[in-house]
Protein backbone atom coordinates (compact mmCIF):
# COMPACT_ATOMS: atom_id res chain seq x y z
CA UNK A 1 0.00 0.00 0.00
CA UNK A 2 1.23 3.47 -0.91
CA UNK A 3 -0.22 6.56 0.75
CA UNK A 4 -0.36 10.14 -0.30
CA UNK A 5 -0.20 12.76 2.43
CA UNK A 6 -1.59 16.06 1.30
CA UNK A 7 -0.08 19.22 2.57
CA UNK A 8 -2.29 20.52 5.34
CA UNK A 9 -1.98 23.98 6.71
CA UNK A 10 -2.10 22.88 10.31
CA UNK A 11 -2.86 20.11 12.78
CA UNK A 12 -5.68 19.93 15.25
CA UNK A 13 -5.00 20.13 18.97
CA UNK A 14 -5.80 16.54 19.85
CA UNK A 15 -5.12 13.89 22.44
CA UNK A 16 -3.81 10.53 21.25
CA UNK A 17 -3.25 7.30 23.12
CA UNK A 18 0.01 5.66 22.01
CA UNK A 19 0.54 1.90 22.27
CA UNK A 20 2.88 0.45 24.93
CA UNK A 21 6.65 0.48 24.43
CA UNK A 22 7.66 -2.47 22.27
CA UNK A 23 11.01 -2.69 24.06
CA UNK A 24 9.41 -2.93 27.50
CA UNK A 25 6.70 -5.26 26.18
CA UNK A 26 9.12 -7.72 24.59
CA UNK A 27 11.24 -7.85 27.74
CA UNK A 28 8.18 -8.45 29.91
CA UNK A 29 6.89 -11.16 27.58
CA UNK A 30 10.15 -13.11 28.01
CA UNK A 31 10.07 -12.55 31.78
CA UNK A 32 6.42 -13.64 31.90
CA UNK A 33 7.31 -16.88 30.08
CA UNK A 34 9.89 -17.52 32.81
CA UNK A 35 7.73 -16.23 35.70
CA UNK A 36 4.00 -16.65 34.94
CA UNK A 37 3.15 -14.63 38.07
CA UNK A 38 3.65 -11.48 35.95
CA UNK A 39 0.59 -9.66 34.57
CA UNK A 40 1.28 -7.12 31.82
CA UNK A 41 -0.93 -4.08 31.15
CA UNK A 42 -0.81 -1.70 28.17
CA UNK A 43 1.13 -4.27 26.14
CA UNK A 44 2.33 -3.00 22.76
CA UNK A 45 0.08 -3.83 19.79
CA UNK A 46 3.12 -3.79 17.47
CA UNK A 47 3.86 -6.64 15.05
CA UNK A 48 7.13 -7.17 16.94
CA UNK A 49 5.26 -7.85 20.18
CA UNK A 50 2.70 -10.03 18.43
CA UNK A 51 5.41 -12.24 16.89
CA UNK A 52 7.08 -12.45 20.30
CA UNK A 53 3.84 -13.64 21.92
CA UNK A 54 3.22 -16.14 19.14
CA UNK A 55 6.78 -17.50 19.33
CA UNK A 56 6.55 -17.98 23.09
CA UNK A 57 3.28 -19.88 22.71
CA UNK A 58 4.41 -22.04 19.80
CA UNK A 59 5.31 -25.67 20.22
CA UNK A 60 6.46 -26.22 16.63
CA UNK A 61 9.97 -26.74 15.40
CA UNK A 62 10.25 -23.60 13.28
CA UNK A 63 9.81 -20.17 14.85
CA UNK A 64 9.70 -17.20 12.46
CA UNK A 65 10.05 -13.75 14.04
CA UNK A 66 9.93 -11.81 10.74
CA UNK A 67 11.59 -8.37 11.19
CA UNK A 68 11.67 -8.22 15.01
CA UNK A 69 15.24 -7.67 16.23
CA UNK A 70 14.41 -7.92 19.93
CA UNK A 71 12.43 -11.12 19.36
CA UNK A 72 15.34 -12.67 17.41
CA UNK A 73 17.91 -11.81 20.04
CA UNK A 74 15.85 -12.40 23.20
CA UNK A 75 14.42 -15.70 21.93
CA UNK A 76 17.87 -17.00 20.97
CA UNK A 77 18.89 -16.81 24.62
CA UNK A 78 15.49 -18.02 25.84
CA UNK A 79 15.33 -21.14 23.67
CA UNK A 80 19.04 -21.91 24.18
CA UNK A 81 18.41 -22.26 27.93
CA UNK A 82 15.11 -24.09 27.67
CA UNK A 83 16.00 -27.68 28.38
CA UNK A 84 14.55 -30.21 25.96
CA UNK A 85 13.31 -27.67 23.38
CA UNK A 86 14.68 -27.76 19.85
CA UNK A 87 13.90 -24.93 17.41
CA UNK A 88 14.91 -23.44 14.12
CA UNK A 89 14.74 -19.71 14.84
CA UNK A 90 14.40 -17.72 11.64
CA UNK A 91 13.21 -14.36 10.33
CA UNK A 92 12.78 -12.13 7.30
CA UNK A 93 15.31 -11.71 4.50
CA UNK A 94 16.69 -8.65 6.31
CA UNK A 95 16.86 -10.52 9.63
CA UNK A 96 19.17 -13.02 7.93
CA UNK A 97 21.54 -10.11 7.26
CA UNK A 98 21.48 -8.75 10.83
CA UNK A 99 24.49 -10.10 12.78
CA UNK A 100 24.01 -12.37 15.80
CA UNK A 101 27.48 -13.86 16.24
CA UNK A 102 28.33 -11.90 19.41
CA UNK A 103 25.29 -13.36 21.17
CA UNK A 104 25.75 -16.89 19.82
CA UNK A 105 29.37 -16.93 20.99
CA UNK A 106 28.38 -15.65 24.42
CA UNK A 107 25.78 -18.39 24.76
CA UNK A 108 28.30 -21.00 23.59
CA UNK A 109 30.61 -19.83 26.40
CA UNK A 110 27.80 -20.87 28.74
CA UNK A 111 27.70 -24.31 27.10
CA UNK A 112 24.64 -23.70 24.88
CA UNK A 113 24.15 -25.70 21.69
CA UNK A 114 23.49 -23.31 18.76
CA UNK A 115 24.38 -23.84 15.10
CA UNK A 116 24.07 -21.57 12.09
CA UNK A 117 21.67 -23.03 9.56
CA UNK A 118 22.82 -20.68 6.79
CA UNK A 119 25.63 -18.12 6.77
CA UNK A 120 27.99 -18.15 9.77
CA UNK A 121 27.19 -15.27 12.12
CA UNK A 122 23.59 -14.72 10.96
CA UNK A 123 20.12 -16.23 11.46
CA UNK A 124 18.56 -18.75 10.98
CA UNK A 125 19.79 -20.60 14.06
CA UNK A 126 19.30 -24.21 15.05
CA UNK A 127 19.02 -24.24 18.83
CA UNK A 128 18.98 -27.24 21.17
CA UNK A 129 17.96 -26.02 24.60
CA UNK A 130 19.95 -27.07 27.68
CA UNK A 131 20.78 -25.79 31.15
CA UNK A 132 23.99 -23.69 30.93
CA UNK A 133 27.04 -25.07 32.75
CA UNK A 134 28.66 -21.73 33.60
CA UNK A 135 27.58 -18.53 35.33
CA UNK A 136 30.03 -16.11 33.73
CA UNK A 137 30.18 -14.68 30.25
CA UNK A 138 31.96 -11.87 28.42
CA UNK A 139 30.93 -10.23 25.15
CA UNK A 140 31.54 -7.23 22.93
CA UNK A 141 29.22 -4.41 23.90
CA UNK A 142 29.61 -2.01 20.98
CA UNK A 143 27.50 -3.78 18.32
CA UNK A 144 24.02 -4.10 19.85
CA UNK A 145 22.76 -3.83 23.41
CA UNK A 146 20.07 -6.37 22.53
CA UNK A 147 22.62 -9.21 22.89
CA UNK A 148 23.29 -8.04 26.44
CA UNK A 149 19.60 -7.64 27.35
CA UNK A 150 18.96 -11.12 25.92
CA UNK A 151 21.44 -12.63 28.40
CA UNK A 152 20.16 -10.48 31.26
CA UNK A 153 16.56 -11.56 30.74
CA UNK A 154 17.28 -15.29 31.06
CA UNK A 155 19.91 -14.74 33.80
CA UNK A 156 17.62 -14.98 36.88
CA UNK A 157 16.29 -18.34 35.66
CA UNK A 158 19.80 -19.85 35.53
CA UNK A 159 20.77 -22.00 38.53
CA UNK A 160 23.45 -19.56 39.71
CA UNK A 161 22.38 -16.33 38.03
CA UNK A 162 24.89 -14.67 35.71
CA UNK A 163 27.89 -12.35 35.69
CA UNK A 164 28.28 -10.51 32.39
CA UNK A 165 31.50 -8.72 31.53
CA UNK A 166 31.07 -6.08 28.80
CA UNK A 167 34.03 -5.55 26.46
CA UNK A 168 34.68 -2.19 24.77
CA UNK A 169 32.46 0.85 24.62
CA UNK A 170 28.88 0.02 25.60
CA UNK A 171 26.26 1.14 23.08
CA UNK A 172 22.54 1.91 23.57
CA UNK A 173 23.05 1.98 27.37
CA UNK A 174 19.49 3.08 28.31
CA UNK A 175 18.16 -0.21 26.92
CA UNK A 176 20.44 -2.11 29.34
CA UNK A 177 19.19 0.10 32.18
CA UNK A 178 15.61 -0.63 31.08
CA UNK A 179 16.30 -4.37 31.41
CA UNK A 180 17.83 -3.84 34.87
CA UNK A 181 14.81 -1.78 35.98
CA UNK A 182 12.27 -4.36 34.80
CA UNK A 183 14.22 -7.18 36.48
CA UNK A 184 14.17 -5.20 39.72
CA UNK A 185 10.44 -4.53 39.31
CA UNK A 186 9.79 -8.26 39.50
CA UNK A 187 12.07 -8.64 42.52
CA UNK A 188 15.32 -9.82 40.91
CA UNK A 189 18.60 -8.53 42.37
CA UNK A 190 20.51 -6.96 39.49
CA UNK A 191 23.38 -4.48 39.18
CA UNK A 192 25.16 -2.70 36.31
CA UNK A 193 28.27 -0.70 37.07
CA UNK A 194 29.71 0.32 33.71
CA UNK A 195 31.30 -2.88 32.41
CA UNK A 196 29.97 -5.50 34.81
CA UNK A 197 26.47 -6.78 35.16
CA UNK A 198 25.48 -9.16 37.90
CA UNK A 199 22.11 -10.85 38.13
CA UNK A 200 21.10 -13.22 40.93
CA UNK A 201 19.09 -16.39 40.52
CA UNK A 202 15.40 -16.12 41.38
CA UNK A 203 13.41 -19.32 41.63
CA UNK A 204 9.98 -17.76 41.82
CA UNK A 205 8.52 -14.29 42.23
CA UNK A 206 5.51 -12.81 44.01
CA UNK A 207 2.54 -12.03 41.72
CA UNK A 208 3.07 -8.63 40.15
CA UNK A 209 1.11 -6.46 37.71
CA UNK A 210 3.18 -4.12 35.57
CA UNK A 211 1.97 -1.29 33.35
CA UNK A 212 4.00 -0.71 30.21
CA UNK A 213 4.62 2.98 29.59
CA UNK A 214 3.63 4.11 26.09
CA UNK A 215 6.30 4.09 23.42
CA UNK A 216 8.61 7.11 23.39
CA UNK A 217 10.09 6.26 19.98
CA UNK A 218 6.54 6.49 18.58
CA UNK A 219 6.12 9.86 20.32
CA UNK A 220 9.06 11.18 18.28
CA UNK A 221 6.89 11.58 15.16
CA UNK A 222 4.57 13.92 17.07
CA UNK A 223 7.54 15.96 18.29
CA UNK A 224 8.44 16.34 14.64
CA UNK A 225 4.86 17.24 13.69
CA UNK A 226 4.62 19.91 16.39
CA UNK A 227 8.06 21.29 15.43
CA UNK A 228 6.93 21.59 11.79
CA UNK A 229 3.47 22.94 12.64
CA UNK A 230 2.42 26.48 13.10
CA UNK A 231 1.67 27.08 16.76
CA UNK A 232 -0.10 23.86 17.69
CA UNK A 233 0.00 21.26 20.44
CA UNK A 234 -0.63 17.51 20.74
CA UNK A 235 -1.25 15.50 23.92
CA UNK A 236 -0.06 11.91 24.15
CA UNK A 237 -0.78 9.23 26.73
CA UNK A 238 0.32 7.39 28.79
CA UNK A 239 3.74 8.72 29.73
CA UNK A 240 5.67 9.38 32.92
CA UNK A 241 8.43 11.89 33.61
CA UNK A 242 10.70 9.12 34.99
CA UNK A 243 10.81 6.78 32.04
CA UNK A 244 12.74 3.54 31.54
CA UNK A 245 13.03 4.47 27.85
CA UNK A 246 16.11 6.36 26.65
CA UNK A 247 14.08 7.98 23.87
CA UNK A 248 12.44 10.14 26.54
CA UNK A 249 15.48 12.36 25.82
CA UNK A 250 13.23 13.70 23.03
CA UNK A 251 11.83 16.23 25.52
CA UNK A 252 15.29 17.77 25.93
CA UNK A 253 16.36 17.47 22.29
CA UNK A 254 13.20 19.01 20.82
CA UNK A 255 13.38 21.99 23.18
CA UNK A 256 16.03 23.30 20.75
CA UNK A 257 13.69 22.54 17.85
CA UNK A 258 10.88 24.64 19.25
CA UNK A 259 8.86 22.04 21.18
CA UNK A 260 8.15 22.24 24.89
CA UNK A 261 7.04 19.12 26.82
CA UNK A 262 4.54 19.52 29.63
CA UNK A 263 4.18 16.47 31.86
CA UNK A 264 0.87 15.92 33.65
CA UNK A 265 -0.22 12.85 35.55
CA UNK A 266 -0.48 10.36 32.70
CA UNK A 267 0.25 12.33 29.59
CA UNK A 268 2.62 14.67 27.87
CA UNK A 269 1.57 17.76 25.97
CA UNK A 270 3.89 18.89 23.20
CA UNK A 271 3.63 22.61 22.56
CA UNK A 272 5.16 24.73 19.85
CA UNK A 273 7.45 27.51 21.16
CA UNK A 274 9.47 30.15 19.35
CA UNK A 275 12.88 29.00 20.66
CA UNK A 276 14.44 27.50 17.57
CA UNK A 277 18.16 26.84 17.36
CA UNK A 278 20.16 27.98 14.30
CA UNK A 279 21.59 24.47 13.83
CA UNK A 280 22.11 21.18 15.71
CA UNK A 281 25.88 21.25 16.08
CA UNK A 282 26.85 17.79 17.36
CA UNK A 283 24.25 15.52 18.85
CA UNK A 284 25.43 12.10 20.06
CA UNK A 285 22.60 9.59 19.60
CA UNK A 286 24.44 6.43 20.68
CA UNK A 287 21.99 6.23 23.62
CA UNK A 288 18.88 6.69 21.49
CA UNK A 289 19.51 5.40 17.96
CA UNK A 290 15.82 4.95 17.08
CA UNK A 291 15.09 8.69 16.98
CA UNK A 292 17.91 9.61 14.58
CA UNK A 293 15.70 9.44 11.49
CA UNK A 294 13.01 11.61 13.08
CA UNK A 295 15.50 14.28 14.15
CA UNK A 296 17.25 14.39 10.76
CA UNK A 297 13.92 14.81 8.92
CA UNK A 298 12.63 17.46 11.36
CA UNK A 299 15.82 19.48 10.82
CA UNK A 300 15.43 19.06 7.06
CA UNK A 301 11.83 20.29 7.22
CA UNK A 302 12.85 23.27 9.35
CA UNK A 303 15.66 24.14 6.92
CA UNK A 304 18.29 23.60 9.65
CA UNK A 305 21.74 22.06 9.47
CA UNK A 306 22.42 19.17 11.80
CA UNK A 307 25.33 16.91 12.66
CA UNK A 308 24.38 13.63 14.33
CA UNK A 309 27.00 11.28 15.81
CA UNK A 310 27.04 7.89 17.56
CA UNK A 311 25.06 6.29 14.73
CA UNK A 312 27.21 3.13 14.27
CA UNK A 313 24.26 0.80 15.02
CA UNK A 314 22.04 2.29 12.30
CA UNK A 315 23.66 0.29 9.52
CA UNK A 316 22.47 -3.06 10.99
CA UNK A 317 18.88 -2.14 11.79
CA UNK A 318 15.77 -2.76 9.61
CA UNK A 319 17.78 -1.29 6.74
CA UNK A 320 21.01 0.68 6.49
CA UNK A 321 19.32 3.76 7.93
CA UNK A 322 22.20 6.11 7.14
CA UNK A 323 22.14 5.31 3.42
CA UNK A 324 18.33 5.30 3.35
CA UNK A 325 18.16 8.75 4.98
CA UNK A 326 20.72 10.17 2.58
CA UNK A 327 18.92 8.80 -0.50
CA UNK A 328 15.45 9.93 0.51
CA UNK A 329 16.38 13.39 1.86
CA UNK A 330 18.36 14.05 -1.33
CA UNK A 331 15.33 13.07 -3.44
CA UNK A 332 13.45 15.83 -1.62
CA UNK A 333 16.13 18.38 -2.53
CA UNK A 334 18.37 18.16 0.56
CA UNK A 335 22.09 17.48 0.87
CA UNK A 336 23.42 14.85 3.29
CA UNK A 337 26.84 13.36 4.00
CA UNK A 338 27.16 10.12 5.94
CA UNK A 339 30.04 8.08 7.37
CA UNK A 340 29.79 4.78 9.26
CA UNK A 341 28.55 6.58 12.36
CA UNK A 342 27.65 10.18 11.53
CA UNK A 343 25.17 12.12 9.46
CA UNK A 344 25.62 15.69 8.35
CA UNK A 345 22.63 17.55 6.95
CA UNK A 346 23.09 20.85 5.13
CA UNK A 347 20.41 23.53 5.41
CA UNK A 348 17.86 23.45 2.56
CA UNK A 349 15.24 26.13 1.96
CA UNK A 350 12.86 24.24 -0.23
CA UNK A 351 11.29 20.78 0.14
CA UNK A 352 10.36 19.31 -3.26
CA UNK A 353 6.72 18.42 -3.82
CA UNK A 354 5.06 15.04 -4.62
CA UNK A 355 8.13 12.90 -4.06
CA UNK A 356 7.65 9.20 -3.23
CA UNK A 357 9.66 8.09 -0.21
CA UNK A 358 10.92 4.52 -0.27
CA UNK A 359 10.70 2.81 3.10
CA UNK A 360 13.08 -0.19 2.71
CA UNK A 361 10.95 -2.42 5.02
CA UNK A 362 11.70 0.09 7.78
CA UNK A 363 8.76 1.43 9.81
CA UNK A 364 10.83 4.39 10.95
CA UNK A 365 11.50 5.55 7.37
CA UNK A 366 7.74 5.84 6.76
CA UNK A 367 6.96 7.55 10.05
CA UNK A 368 9.96 9.91 10.08
CA UNK A 369 9.13 11.36 6.64
CA UNK A 370 5.34 11.67 7.12
CA UNK A 371 5.48 14.97 9.11
CA UNK A 372 6.93 16.67 6.02
CA UNK A 373 3.34 16.77 4.72
CA UNK A 374 3.11 19.93 6.84
CA UNK A 375 5.50 21.43 4.28
CA UNK A 376 4.66 19.74 0.96
CA UNK A 377 2.47 16.88 -0.30
CA UNK A 378 4.43 13.63 -0.12
CA UNK A 379 3.91 9.95 -0.97
CA UNK A 380 5.05 7.04 1.19
CA UNK A 381 5.77 3.72 -0.52
CA UNK A 382 4.74 0.51 1.30
CA UNK A 383 3.20 2.51 4.09
CA UNK A 384 2.03 -0.63 5.91
CA UNK A 385 5.58 -1.07 7.28
CA UNK A 386 4.57 1.11 10.25
CA UNK A 387 2.89 -1.90 11.89
CA UNK A 388 6.29 -3.18 13.04
CA UNK A 389 6.06 -0.78 15.97
CA UNK A 390 2.97 1.43 15.52
CA UNK A 391 0.02 -0.13 13.62
CA UNK A 392 -2.28 2.85 14.30
CA UNK A 393 0.12 5.45 12.94
CA UNK A 394 -1.86 6.41 9.82
CA UNK A 395 -5.21 6.55 11.60
CA UNK A 396 -3.65 8.69 14.35
CA UNK A 397 -2.30 11.08 11.69
CA UNK A 398 -5.77 11.22 10.21
CA UNK A 399 -7.11 12.12 13.68
CA UNK A 400 -4.74 15.07 13.77
CA UNK A 401 -6.17 16.36 10.49
CA UNK A 402 -3.63 14.98 8.01
CA UNK A 403 -5.22 13.95 4.72
CA UNK A 404 -4.03 10.35 4.29
CA UNK A 405 -5.16 8.70 1.03
CA UNK A 406 -4.36 5.22 -0.23
CA UNK A 407 -3.10 5.39 -3.82
O1 LIG B 1 16.68 -3.49 23.47
C1 LIG B 1 15.84 -2.90 22.76
O2 LIG B 1 14.62 -2.98 22.98
C2 LIG B 1 16.33 -2.10 21.63
C3 LIG B 1 17.64 -1.71 21.56
C4 LIG B 1 18.18 -0.87 20.48
O3 LIG B 1 18.98 -1.69 19.63
P1 LIG B 1 20.62 -1.70 19.67
O4 LIG B 1 21.05 -2.02 21.03
O5 LIG B 1 20.92 -2.77 18.67
O6 LIG B 1 21.06 -0.34 19.24
C5 LIG B 1 17.06 -0.23 19.65
O7 LIG B 1 17.57 0.29 18.46
C6 LIG B 1 15.95 -1.20 19.35
O8 LIG B 1 14.92 -0.61 18.60
C7 LIG B 1 15.32 -1.73 20.61
C1 LIG C 1 15.82 -1.14 15.50
C2 LIG C 1 14.56 -1.37 15.80
O1 LIG C 1 14.03 -2.57 16.13
P1 LIG C 1 14.69 -4.03 16.21
O2 LIG C 1 16.19 -3.88 16.28
O3 LIG C 1 14.14 -4.61 17.48
O4 LIG C 1 14.26 -4.77 15.00
C3 LIG C 1 13.58 -0.24 15.80
O5 LIG C 1 12.44 -0.46 16.22
O6 LIG C 1 13.91 0.89 15.38
From TrEMBL:
Name of the molecule in the record: 3-phosphoshikimate 1-carboxyvinyltransferase
Location of this chain's protein in the cell: Cytoplasm
UniProt binding sites for 3-phosphoshikimate: 22-23, 27, 144-146, 172, 290, 317
Entry-linked PROSITE patterns: EPSP_SYNTHASE_2
Function: Catalyzes the transfer of the enolpyruvyl moiety of phosphoenolpyruvate (PEP) to the 5-hydroxyl of shikimate-3-phosphate (S3P) to produce enolpyruvyl shikimate-3-phosphate and inorganic phosphate.
SUPFAM superfamilies to which the protein is assigned, alphabetical: EPT/RTPC-like
Native species: Aquimarina hainanensis
Record-listed E.C. numbers: 2.5.1.19
Subunit structure, interactors included: Monomer.
Catalytic activity: 3-phosphoshikimate + phosphoenolpyruvate = 5-O-(1-carboxyvinyl)-3-phosphoshikimate + phosphate
Keyword annotations of the record: Amino-acid biosynthesis, Aromatic amino acid biosynthesis, Cytoplasm, Transferase
Domain Enolpyruvate transferase stretches: 63-397
